[in-house]
């Protein structure tokens, strides 16, 4: 099967969050299964062009009333592996930051930046003389591609192509003024504006919503966990899109993200050397805890549990439950019954709040406001527990990483966290972590205190650690489920083509 993955991120070239890891891993898994999968991203500032070859001649892309041009660079996602195409247009992509200057802002021309990426995908395929069976798009930045395919490009050489849209986070929608539709060429929007309903067909709440454009147009829709696929149909967790999503309910499938265990393995993780370990020999993990405490400038006390947290510092991740300095959740750390180590970047209000925690509780709390891959892996390996108190979590990957590294996750029962973590109190023989329900400082405090008590039961905690390290959430099974979705999308397209032929 021929699959073009169009994304705003892919690791290791452009990464803000889990989207980059998912696109990389899914493409790799599909490639290993023998499928012709390729990736298209923007050539952002900071990507090393020396790893690419420049394509001959610029690529022209119909946009607005004219045409915009870009250079195309060709590389590989992995050595001798998945082809990677990057669009180079300096006025759109040559700047610090992917979506904005920092985690709290957005570039004012994001509609044009990603609308151009969507439109350019079709022109690139024409140049390559390579028409994909599936356009797989991700979140709001590339969701309009599904709309373009359905409303114009399908009649311009892509008759057999289908689209699949993956929602990684429904709260991120790409909302722009209604007149933003004019960034697309008249040919691309004529099917919509030429009917009696005019622009109302693509406007949502009087705005142009990129994610909605994809939701109403994609042949199939996926989310990144089965629980999240159900949650987004509710008013509470749909971010205002419950009606749109319920209308597409039959086309929505939840597929849990996987982990690339070649990249996440404590036995050969370079960041942990020389203290690597596996589930049959955990002595290296004991040494890593001491090393982590030293690097975090905390007292090296072996009998005190360490809670690690690697996270974007946003309200989604539940960090507000910890930044209440006098709140119940911070009590174990205030009292010195546990240590807390946090690394991450995000919204300024939470960055400042965690800085204050690190200053006030120097003996028990260590905070590093940074994106630090090596230190993050040290936290995964050296901590006793991994905190993920998310308000909502479409999938989550760190709880899976932490299990692999023998660090028990402490999570809220939502989305992918609910699908992957089994509470030890509810199922002592199968449990691999701790789960709480009530989104409050008291709810989080209760589960932290349960974890602390469990820590001192050495026989039980060693069994839980080994159970977690045995669990596998591999991409082989996830890729198989995506292929089923691709085949359904192709069947839908063939049925639509037959209906059109019969009505002609």
Describe this structure in words.
The chain has 504 residues and is an alpha/beta fold. It has 2 domains: 285 residues, 3-Layer(aba) Sandwich (Rossmann fold); 204 residues, Rossmann fold (3-Layer(aba) Sandwich). Strands 1, 2, 3, 4, 5, 6, 7, 8, 12 and 13 form a 10-stranded mixed beta sheet that branches. Strands 16-15-14-17-18-19 form a 6-stranded parallel beta sheet, with helices on both faces. α11 links the parallel β14 and β15. About 2% of the residues have low confidence.
Give the gist of this structure.
The chain contains 18 helices and 19 strands. The protein has 504 residues and is of the alpha/beta class.
| Overall mean confidence score, pLDDT | 93
Supply the helix-strand structural class.
Answer: alpha/beta
Distance from first to last alpha carbon: 29 Å
CATH topology type of the largest domain: Rossmann fold
The main sheet comes to: 10 strands, mixed
Query: What is the name of the CATH class of the largest domain?
Result: Alpha Beta
Give the fraction of residues assigned to helices: 25-40%
CATH superfamily of the largest domain: Glycogen Phosphorylase B
